[in-house]
Design goal:
Number of strands: 33
Distance between the termini: 46 Å
Oligomer: single chain
Strand order of the largest sheet: 18-19-21-20-22-25
């Protein structure tokens, strides 16, 4: 396959691009690290990177809104010069299309401002920033060359060199043009005289340098390779050669007109399909601006312009590679089937041959019955005489020498197995026919007579016939099974090929990444360079930066595409990711992570020095997150077809107490279960119940200051002493730890009042604030649902020490969405509604909001909605009837994967990542709920893509894992 531009390609391409001169640069993008897109006064449809690279930003700085003034080729070299602007404000973009390629931005004096691939040539020529581009090194046309000098050039050429090798350096038009003109004038495979015989194979060696590869040379010169190498005749061939060179120069002149057509040359590849039929797959091998003679027998596609053909060639290159890989797999599958068929056919042929041989031997013994019996008796007599085996051999040889007929028929004595080999022929065949017939050697058992030996061979023939029949029956089943497996393999290969073609690699997959349980994209750097890239190019004003103060911790960014506050659950998950991708994973230690806003992250130290790659300065307060376990999960996200996206909206969202999945996740915890039941009752009855406290409660007098940590994703609550006095330092927006203070002074005051009230009351009861509280009690009880009275009684006992403030803060933490806070009033004065108590609520522990949504998209090429569209099209919970395009492996904190269909738990262990990935795929495929489409998508996933995001050596946990391993 052609991979590089020739000089003639560049001549035609530059001529065609002249129509763009005078257009202004609208914008510059990078499609990947080797492809850059210049948009000139129009909208482009090419896919682009989410954020521009450093090179793109440099190009934008100097070239945006500049006019394209000139496009030229440097000499006859494969270098294209794009000049933007004029005079002292001119900038040049030099595109090198040889070797590994390069792109250089220079000023009007050709001083390098930016270079894609800095390098050095020799000792003096350096390609680097602030170095002048050596324009003089470009190849130029030899002005002294003419047709008259052609004879001198040929005379100076070394002997045995191919004619095309002589012409290519002086014509500077590429090998395709030279081959074309030599073929048209019947000068192909000409070599220079003197030493031609010894150098017949030699010219092929320099020819390899002029072409891209051995395979390409074979395809392009198949016809030439079959012809003989001929010696160039200076007298007869020189005039013809001059005509060929003149034709080549005319082709170059025509290429400069900018009117070249485009051609893609194809090679037919057989593509077997079902029922033994054959289709042809056209594989692209060349793009050319002219239909050259060497391609006249090939299939080709014609385009209106050369650059259109180039665009089509490279646009379909990846698809062609996938098709060729699929074709190769299909051929291997069919080759296996063919080998099975050949093996069975060979076995049947051998069995048939054995039957024919046994039948023939039996018939020969029968026809030569007296001869066989005489031979058996003679040998038996010698054995009965107690002669040694060597003496018997000597006796047989002596008899053969004397012309004995019986002895002459003995070919070999096999006395160790009590057999002799006889040479037998058909006695009823004439002498002339007998001379033409091959004699047959038959083994005869000395313990049996001639008839018995014949019967033995007939038995062997019948046994072989039975074996043949069994083999035929087994072969039919085996062939059907092999054909079925082959068809299944072909179907799978084609299905996987279609999946791979549909597979779109998203921009965030080059990083560590996952989608939080509340639908926020979280990305982290794999190394220092990616950490630098994430902060500089992908972190926006409303995003959150998460990190951990431990070696190797990844810089994690939460992409805020909603414009709202980042919920605590997403912050905790991002913190878990930052810790897991650090030395903490292998060391199996747990530490704390923290988050800050994007404006707190700086690249400059307080001293003014610039920090190393991947290092950043955090200004202001670090908001530490609660400790978390080193528990990650491996799962799959499925890309939905656009029309099925709406069915899955809201799968990952900020959960509130009204959401059933959120409620169910707390069922295992008694405290949260009671709180949620109580809230549901309040919502249904719209009543606020005041629960008095009893005097035997535990007021935590030993721990006057206590921290209560609530993990809202698991419902776990941890209480520990704290030396900090909450009254002296109340919770504010700047406080970021998800921590609540224990019994406050207000609570102690309420406890004191309750004790006084207790003295005046002999038994606890539910009271209302007005005079008719006792009369109103039955009405409240009547509104409580059946079975709820016992729960209310338990809540009275369990939460008797809880005051208003503590109740509100706990409900605030449980309700991650920030929706309506519902509280139980434990004071005995006046019952307050939820809305009336809003002014007394503490502030939420959230990230400050930017002023408006526009701040999110400022300095970012991709609109915020693009991220959201991508995330909404990915689901971890496919349902029946969904059209799934492809599957993406994802490694995330395990709590973010709770509702995914396929998942395994990863914890620090000793297992290798590749083996763990393979085991995970096997577990997913063996799931009972896994349908055929999902299995096909699983087969298209490469193990390396699954393993690359696993933090390190791991232990996999999954239901019935040991059974699956067995």
């Amino acid at each position: 396959m052609k991979t590089r531009f020739s000089t003639y390609d560049i001549i035609c391409g530059v001529a065609e691009l002249q129509k763009l001169v005078g257009w202004r640069v609208n914008q510059i993008y990078d499609i990947d690290n080797k492809t850059y897109l210049f948009r000139l006064q129009g909208n482009g449809a090419w896919p682009k990177n989410v954020a521009p690279s450093g090179f793109s930003m440099k190009l934008r700085k100097h070239l945006k809104n500049k006019r394209l003034e000139k496009i030229s080729q440097l000499g006859v070299d494969r270098i294209v010069d794009f000049q933007f602007g004029s005079g002292d404000a001119a900038y040049h973009v030099l595109l090198e299309l040889y070797d590994r390629g390069n792109l250089i931005l220079t000023d009007f004096e050709l001083t390098t401002l930016y270079i894609l691939r800095p390098h050095t040539e020799g000792e003096n020529i350096r390609f680097a920033v602030r170095e002048k581009y050596p324009i003089e090194r470009a190849k130029h046309q030899d002005d002294e060359f003419s047709l008259d000098h052609l004879a001198d050039l040929l005379e100076k050429a070394p002997p045995g060199v191919h004619l095309r090798q002589i012409l290519m350096p002086v014509l500077n038009c590429g090998p395709a043009v030279v081959e074309h003109v030599l073929l048209l004038h019947d000068l192909e495979n000409r070599v220079m005289p003197q030493g031609t015989t010894s150098n017949v194979d030699g010219p092929e060696q320099p020819l390899k340098k002029a072409q891209n590869s051995k395979k390409q040379r074979k395809e392009r010169n198949l016809q030439n390779a079959k012809s003989e190498v001929k010696v160039f005749d200076m007298v007869n061939d020189l005039p013809t050669l001059k005509m060929a060179v003149k034709r080549a120069l005319n082709l170059i002149k025509d290429g400069n007109n900018g009117e070249s057509k485009g051609y893609i040359i194809h090679v037919k590849e057989e593509k077997p399909i079902e029922d033994g039929k054959i289709e042809y797959f056209l594989r692209n091998i060349e793009f050319q601006p002219f239909l050259f003679a060497q391609f006249k027998d090939n299939e080709f596609s014609m385009f209106e312009s050369f650059l259109e053909a180039v665009d089509e060639f490279y646009s379909t290159q990846e698809s062609q590679k996938i098709d060729m890989k699929t074709l190769q797999q299909e051929r291997e599958a069919l080759k296996k089937l063919s080998n099975v068929k050949k093996d069975h056919a060979k076995r049947l042929e051998e069995l048939t041959k054995v039957q024919d041989d046994d039948k023939k031997k039996a018939e020969l013994i029968t026809s030569n019955q007296s001869l066989v019996d005489n031979a058996i008796r003679a040998v038996q007599s010698a054995i009965a005489s107690q002669l040694t085996w060597p003496d018997i051999h000597e006796l047989v040889k002596e008899a053969q020498t004397n012309g004995d007929v019986v002895a002459s028929s003995i070919k070999q004595l096999k006395l160790e197995i009590n057999h002799i080999s006889l040479i037998l022929s058909d006695p009823y065949v004439s002498q002339n026919e007998k001379d033409c017939e091959d004699l047959t050697v038959v083994d005869v058992d000395l313990a049996l007579s001639a008839w018995a030996n014949a019967r033995r061979y007939y038995d062997l023939k019948r046994s072989a016939a039975q074996k043949e029949q069994k083999t035929v029956d087994a072969s039919q089943k085996a062939l059907k099974s092999a054909e079925r497996k082959t068809q299944q393999t072909l179907k799978e290969v084609r299905t996987i090929s279609n999946i791979v073609k549909a597979r779109k690699v998203f921009w965030f997959e080059k990083f560590y990444w996952f989608i939080s349980s509340e639908n926020f994209l979280v990305i982290g750097g794999r190394d220092a360079q990616q950490n630098e890239l994430i902060v500089k190019r992908y972190m926006r004003p409303k995003d959150i930066y998460v990190h951990a103060e431990i070696q190797g911790a990844s810089s994690v960014v939460i992409r805020n595409t909603t414009g709202e506050d980042i919920p605590p659950k997403t912050l905790v998950e991002a913190g878990s990711m930052a810790i897991s991708y650090s030395v903490a994973w292998d060391a199996k230690v747990v530490t704390n992570s923290y988050w800050v806003t994007s404006d707190q992250v700086s690249k400059t130290a307080p001293t003014g020095e610039y920090l190393a790659t991947g290092s950043f300065m955090i200004r202001g307060k670090k908001n530490f997150l609660p400790s978390c376990h080193l528990t990650m999960g491996l799962s799959l996200l499925f890309k939905l077809e656009e029309s099925f996206v709406a069915r899955h909206l809201g799968e990952r969202k900020v959960r509130s107490i009204d959401d059933a999945p959120f409620e169910n996740s707390f069922k295992q915890n008694d405290l949260t279960d009671m709180l949620l039941n109580e809230v549901n009752e309040d919502l249904e009855t719209q009543q606020v119940v005041s629960i008095p406290e009893e005097d035997h409660r535990n007021d935590n007098s030993d721990f006057p200051n206590t921290e209560v940590k609530i993990e809202h994703d698991t419902g776990r609550i941890t209480v520990k002493p704290n030396s900090l006095n909450v009254e002296d330092k109340p919770i504010t927006d700047e406080e970021t730890s998800i921590i609540l203070a224990g019994p406050s002074r207000k609570k102690q005051q309420n406890a004191k009042k309750n004790k006084e009230n207790k003295a005046r009351s002999s038994h606890p009861e539910i009271k209302l604030s007005d005079k008719g509280s006792l009369d109103a009690e039955p009405s409240i009880s009547s509104q409580v649902k059946r079975g709820q009275k016992g729960k209310i009684k338990k809540m009275k006992s369990k939460y008797k020490d809880q005051d208003d403030e503590e109740r509100e803060i706990r409900m605030m933490i449980l309700n991650s969405s920030g929706k309506g806070k519902v509280c139980i009033n434990t004071s005995k004065d006046v019952a307050k509604s939820v809305s009336a108590n809003e002014e007394e609520k503490p502030k939420k522990i959230v990230v400050p909001n930017p002023k408006n949504q526009m701040e999110l998209d400022e300095n970012d090429d991709m609109p915020a909605g693009v991220d959201m569209d991508i995330l909404n099209s990915l689901t971890g919970q496919p349902i029946e009837g969904d059209e799934l395009l492809f599957a993406i492996p994802v490694v995330a904190p395990y709590q973010a994967l709770q509702h995914y269909k396929f998942k395994v738990k990863l914890t620090p262990g000793t297992g290798k990542r590749g083996k763990a990935a393979k085991l995970a795929l096997n577990i997913f495929a063996k799931e009972k709920t896994c349908n055929n489409r999902e299995r096909d998508l699983l087969k298209s996933i490469k193990e390396e893509s699954l393993a690359r995001n696993i933090p390190g050596k791991v232990k996999i946990s999954a239901p019935q894992l040991q059974k699956l391993k067995k």
